[in-house]
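This part of the workshop introduces the protein records we will be handling. Getting from the letters to the tokens is the skill we practise here. An example says more than a description, so a record of this kind follows:
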Amino acid sequence: MGDDPGPDAVTDWRNSGVQVIAHDRLDPNTPQTPGMHRQAAVGGAAGAKSIWAGTVTVEPGALTGPHHHGELESVIYVLEGRARMRWGDRLEFVADAGPGDFIFVPPYVPHQEINADPGAPLRCALARSGQEPIVVNLDIEPAESPERVPPG
């Protein structure tokens, strides 16, 4: 690998090694979608070169506006609550996920996150395959009866 400094290189691991980003130091200055609140944890400011990670919270019973993240792949890990995902050109597909479940969203897939629990927030950890904060909010008329897709 071209970035490998080699076995004899001296590296300042204290300042360029592992970082802990405290939960109260997350950055809310990232593109948002109506109905959710994203906060950045790992990105260019932390020294990451090819990933982005953060958190997302959806309030009880709320749903986000339809959107996609361009060429980026996204992985969502449900920490608390019940996530209901709708996706497709008319949000015609639906699946639910709970604590401990992962959700993979491929590039350019129109989707919407819904908090399926009217009494508790939905809290998730989120990682994306790139540094660009791509959020394309969409104007979609959702299908009335989405097709339920079982977990894989």
